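Researcher: Sequence recovery benchmark, item below. Answer with residues only.
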């Protein structure tokens, strides 16, 4: 199948911007990180200058993000906007090339919000505060650069850069097994990066000219076995970050040992990088391979959903149980991407936004009651609802959103994905029915393991030592509400989120020639 390039695809370069707003968004936190070591070394544990400086910088950065994407970004065009291109290292073809479309813009906003709230959640960090908040600022820059890069090598450098702060944040400020969890994280992700680099350079060298620009890579006609091999390299490389089974085992360990603010970053942003990269590279640049392997992606998504849900039952640690639920929920992203349908891809985008807010909220609330109880063991907690009624209300709200209660964002995203699969006529009827039935198993299991956790933690046998713990303060309540209120708003008015990316996801779906879909279900005699 030949891929016909539409001039209106999301990667089309539109124009240079009068002011480098995207560069400002990316570089402002990095500049703050460079300033941090110049601050006077804290002489006592009450020195909060590094924390306050990081909050100011991240708040300013978030205001710029909101202003730029609220005033200058047009969500009704699929073209790349706010384009900035500057020759950086011409000898190797590296450009400082930034741009935004409907696929990247919502994730940049999500990244800015969660990073700001993560810094606010780090209010009580007292160990090596200059280094801690410097790493948060570097992480903010790297995340934004991943979503905005339009040069493969620049994207890859940002992808690698964000691994370093996460590794150090877990290894230095984590729990008892922090070195094991941090090492496992870096080994998984670094090895996966090799596949990303090899696949990306192979694409850049293919055809009659070398290019690292993502728009030019999209215009190449990449077909045959070569496209399949590149697709699989990207799938494994990005799948580790998503994560997909069986490449997910670093995630429960990382969440189990990381402090709550770092878990907010992991669940709220890092996992979304995997989903974003699959859309940007596997779907947009390699459409033929995606059409061939889309049913396989759906099968992997179903395995993720069911395995993650079953594995959550086996966890007696609150954070590890939420981490396993993330594996299950990201399986729905794979389902939406594999649907090769406008509804399915739209649902995948909404699931990433929704899960980013919900998971960050649940990890934050978990960290809040961990500070008061000094335990995450479910059997060692009980009767907390009476002592911590506000904490219980926020945790229960997050759990209801996670199990896709109607009226909340999780329900809208998952039902949209299901509709995308059922409307995909390229799959056989049998394959579509089996997919829905198997994925529905996850919908049944999710409320069981989440609500049972709520019951045991907040209504289990009351532990006297936990009956005098203090309730959330105003700062903590504000962070929790900032994350959870949008899930209700999106649940009742989903167009608020969908309008940001719908034009781009529709254009992406239209660029896939569904009539040539090779159904894996047929090749396996499933239909």
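Model:
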């Amino acid at each position: 199948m030949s891929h016909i390039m539409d001039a209106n695809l999301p990667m089309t370069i539109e124009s240079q911007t009068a002011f480098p707003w995207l560069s400002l968004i990316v570089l402002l936190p990095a500049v703050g990180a460079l300033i941090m070591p110049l601050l006077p070394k804290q002489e006592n544990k009450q020195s909060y200058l590094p924390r306050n400086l990081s909050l100011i910088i991240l708040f300013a950065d978030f205001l710029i993000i909101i202003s730029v994407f609220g005033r200058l970004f047009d969500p009704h065009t699929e073209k790349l906007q706010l384009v900035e291109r500057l020759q950086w290292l011409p000898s190797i073809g590296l450009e400082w090339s930034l741009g935004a479309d409907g696929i990247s813009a919502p994730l940049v906003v999500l990244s800015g919000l969660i990073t700001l709230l993560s810094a606010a959640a780090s209010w009580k960090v007292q160990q090596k505060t200059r280094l801690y908040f410097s790493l948060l600022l570097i992480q903010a820059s790297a995340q934004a650069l991943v979503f905005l890069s339009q040069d493969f090598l620049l994207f890859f450098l940002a992808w690698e850069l964000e691994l370093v702060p996460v590794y150090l944040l877990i290894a230095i400020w984590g729990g008892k097994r922090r070195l094991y969890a941090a090492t496992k994280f870096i080994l998984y992700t670094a090895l996966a990066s090799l596949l990303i680099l090899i696949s990306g350079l192979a694409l850049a060298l293919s055809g009659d000219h070398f290019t690292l620009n993502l728009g030019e890579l999209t215009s190449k006609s990449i077909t045959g076995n070569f496209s399949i091999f590149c697709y699989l390299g990207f799938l494994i490389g990005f799948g580790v970050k998503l994560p997909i089974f069986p490449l997910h085992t670093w995630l429960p360990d990382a969440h189990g040992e990381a402090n709550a603010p770092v878990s907010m970053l992991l669940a709220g942003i890092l996992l979304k990088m995997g989903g974003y990269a699959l859309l940007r590279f596997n779907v947009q640049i390699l459409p033929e391979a995606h059409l061939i392997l889309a049913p396989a992606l759906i099968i992997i998504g179903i395995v993720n959903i069911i395995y993650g849900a079953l594995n959550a039952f086996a966890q007696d640690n609150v954070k590890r149980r939420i981490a396993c639920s993330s594996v299950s929920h990201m399986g729905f992203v794979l389902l939406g991407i594999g649907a090769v349908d406008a509804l399915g891809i739209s649902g995948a985008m909404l699931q990433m936004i929704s899960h980013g807010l919900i998971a960050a909220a649940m990890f934050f609330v978990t960290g809040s009651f961990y500070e008061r109880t000094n335990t995450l063991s479910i059997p060692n907690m009980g009767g907390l609802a009476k002592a911590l009624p506000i904490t219980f209300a926020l945790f229960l709200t997050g759990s209801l959103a996670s199990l896709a209660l109607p009226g909340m964002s999780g329900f809208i995203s998952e039902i949209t994905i299901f509709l995308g699969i059922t409307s995909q006529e390229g799959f056989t009827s049998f394959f579509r029915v089996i997919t829905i039935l198997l994925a529905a198993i996850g919908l049944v299991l999710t409320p069981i393991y989440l609500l049972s956790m709520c019951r045991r933690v907040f209504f289990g046998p009351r532990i006297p030592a936990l009956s005098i713990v203090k309730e959330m303060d105003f700062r903590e309540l504000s962070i929790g509400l900032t994350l959870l209120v949008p899930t209700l708003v999106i649940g009742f008015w989903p167009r608020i989120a969908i309008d940001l990316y719908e034009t781009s996801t529709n254009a992406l779906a239209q660029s896939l020639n569904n009539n040539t879909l090779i159904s894996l279900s047929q090749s396996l005699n499933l239909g």
